Amino acid sequence: MKVKEMIQNTAFSTQTLQMPEPLVAHSSQKCLGIHLIAEFWDGKIIEEQKEVERILLDAARRARSTALAISSHKFSPYGITAFVLLAESHISMHSWPEKNYLAIDIFTCGEKTMPFKALEYLKEIYQPKRVEVREIKRGKIR
Amino acid sequence: MKVKEMIQNTAFSTQTLQMPEPLVAHSSQKCLGIHLIAEFWDGKIIEEQKEVERILLDAARRARSTALAISSHKFSPYGITAFVLLAESHISMHSWPEKNYLAIDIFTCGEKTMPFKALEYLKEIYQPKRVEVREIKRGKIR
């Protein structure tokens, strides 16, 4: 497929979200963040852009985090990339359907957030046959 | 500071970018991605939202990546969070000025991208006194 055809078939979506709850500035929260780096292999392939956005927003809610903005892009012939900017950092997803692979990041900070709940939710949705997860502590103070 | 005051003082910025060059769908690229997870300590504090966006877009260019959208948020009383969605994944930055800490992620895939160039650029800009970098290979095929 020529590059020009790829451009015509791609679709952007970016929106700033209204906050349903008051924003707690992260500067008032404990700053040690948990960053889950997840590799999903051989799961469902979801190519509908708005559905992917809805899934990530649901994941953000499961993590008890506050979504500030969401942005996504659909590639041609296939592949979706998306991120949710959170008050507590971010959730991102990049798909490679031809490899049956999803790169997922769930980075949240603060005492009330539950990144593992977002991870479990995404596993339920995508049903990957193989999952690798690294947990990285961000902002560890010496 | 009450939560309501925090809301009034915060500012969103989200924009979908025009692509200066043809988009190469990442499905046509090698899918092994490099994800740099960088902790910047005790560097410059840059609180101007548009300047932070410009810095991240410059970082994306240094990495020879294609920026699709950028989103940022300024907290009150301080702190900036920002994310650039790339054709090749993403660059993100979350700041904790009160801790003199920046959490930076540079995740790119494909043979032409140069994530370490983006990292070097960000170090030049922020001049952190201490830097910790993890390099994670994403989407390793068995």
Q: Can you give a write-up of this model?
A:
The structure is a homodimer of 142-residue chains. Chain A is an alpha+beta fold. Chain A has helices spanning 3-9, 49-62, 115-126; strands at residues 11-16, 33-41, 67-74, 80-86, 89-96, 101-109, 130-138. In chain A, β5 and β6 form a beta hairpin. The interface between A and B is large, with 57 and 56 residues.
Task: List SSEs of chain A in N-to-C order.
Answer: HEEHEEEEHE
Which chains have the largest interface? Answer: A-B, 57 and 56 residues
- Individual helix count of chain A: 3
What is the approximate shape of chain A? globular
What is the oligomeric state here? Answer: homodimer
Short description:
2 copies of one chain form a homodimer. Chain A is α+β, with helices and mostly antiparallel strands. Chain A has 3 helices and 7 strands.
